Amino acid sequence: MREPIYLDYQATTPLDPRVRGAMLPYLDARFGNPHSEHVFGWEAAEAVDEAARNVADLIGADAGEIIFTSGATEANNLAIQGIARSDERRGIHIVTTTIEHKCVLNTALSLRNSGFAVDVIPVDRSGLVDLSALEAALTDETILVSVMMVNNEIGTVQPIAEIGALCRKHGIMLHTDAAQAAGKLPINVATLNVDLLSLSGHKIYGPKGIGALYISRHCPTQLAPLAIGGAQQQGLRAGTVAPFLCAGLGEACRIACTELARDRAHSEALRDTFWSILSSHLPDTVINGDTVHRLPHNLNILFPGSDADSLLASVQGEIAASTGSACNAGLIEPSYVLLALGLSLEEANSSIRFGFGRFTSMDDVERAAILLADKASRIHQTFAVG
Predict the structure, then answer these.
(1) What are phi and psi of 205, to 5 degrees?
(2) Does domain 17-254 have CATH number 3.40.640.10?
(3) Contact 62, 54 (CB under 8 A)
(4) Mind listing the pLDDT tens digit for each residue in 288-335?
(5) Residue 169 predicted with pLDDT over 60
(6) Nearest CA to 172 among 204, 198, 137?
(7) What does DSSP say about strands 5-6 and 93-97: parallel, antiparallel, or unpaired?
(8) 385 pLDDT higher than 50
């Protein structure tokens, strides 16, 4: 029996064997605490420092601007709450969008309980931020704008450089959640005018449990830490840094930096083949999100007249895909991202997200597309007869 075909690369990616190799020494002989002042500690600290350099290289930053976290969720919280709780903040207004990851949306909205004003800006049918609405929302009290670089459900790429220029014009800090963009798009924080950027290890073939927050050295506000303790990581994240996780993230970033173009071309070929086969068999299928400003690693497809959960259940054990973000698993509700695009409840419930990546083969997508087309046709015929 063949292995199931994994098409859920936005939820997580397989660990690259090269990343695993980079991590192993720090799970064994090089076990030192990187904050200890002796040879074991220095050895571990060098791994952390090298990882910071590799993360920085991926986004055009400096190693001293990188803070390691447990993942993008913590990094997003540190960015938003860190600015909001800072003694240096100059206002109480935050702006974000309707399609942000829940760790950004819910973090921002929770600050309303502490007296902050939060505006949530709409997106258009393709998932792009309305720049005029964003600028109109800015006030003298606005301290932060948070807009994700790439949406995790529909793959739409936001005009971060334009948003960054807008924020610079008004003297407002910009944070971007780049968990789905890092390693897939060329990123230069300076040209994007980004003050804060979050990323995650397990979205780029690294380990789970590690991420990073870029904080520009020119950031006008000193962030308040979320956890109080020692002075590790410039006093912004107390606790012992895990060298093996840092080494894994660093190696994942190093590989992504050198293989970004090849990975992108590979995903483009996979996506085009998958969509060509599927749409030829099911001509009424529609791609959700922008068809130009999007990552090639993602397709969110509307199967009109089909129940997405039933369709996925029919290929259970053969294809792994999802109806939305993994962060909402267990919730019996449609995708809030698709609803924000203006899809109806029925359309949102008829949509499936497919993700392609480094270890997906052409045979995988060909088999998956044919199987899905067959199952969808059978489901339609059953309903038609009934």
Answers:
(1) 70, 25
(2) yes
(3) no
(4) 999 999 999 999 999 998 999 999 999 999 999 999 765 655 555 789
(5) yes
(6) 137
(7) unpaired
(8) no
Q: Please choose, from the candidates 209, 212, 214, 208, the residue with its C-alpha nearest in 3D space to the C-alpha of residue 194.
A: 214
Between CA 175 and CA 177 the distance in angstroms is 7
Please tell me the total number of residues recorded for the chain in this structure: 386
Instruction: Give the dihedral sign, CA 325/331/334/340.
Output: negative
Q: What is the C-alpha separation between 226 and 238, in angstroms, rounded?
A: 9
DSSP state of 97: E
Other CB atoms within 10 A of residue 221 CB = 19
| Closest among 55, 105, 102 to 249, alpha carbons compared | 55
Model pTM score: 0.95
Known active-site residue 327: yes
Tell me if 23 sits within 8 A of 336, measured CB to CB.
Answer: no
Burial class (CB in 10 A: 0-12, 13-18, 19+), 192: buried
pLDDT of residue 379: 78
H/E element holding 59? Answer: helix 39-59
Domain ranges of the chain: 5-12+260-385, 17-254
State the architecture of 5-12+260-385 in CATH terms: Alpha-Beta Complex (3.90)
Per-residue pLDDT, 331: 56
Amino acid identity of residue 356, one-letter, is F
Q: What span, in angstroms and rounded, lies between the C-alpha atoms of 202 and 117?
A: 33
Instruction: Please name the helix (run of DSSP H) or strand (run of DSSP E) that holds residue 372, with its range, or none.
Output: helix 362-385
In which band, very low, low, confident or very high, does the pLDDT at 188 lie, cut at 50, 70 and 90? Answer: very high
CA distance 199 to 184: 12
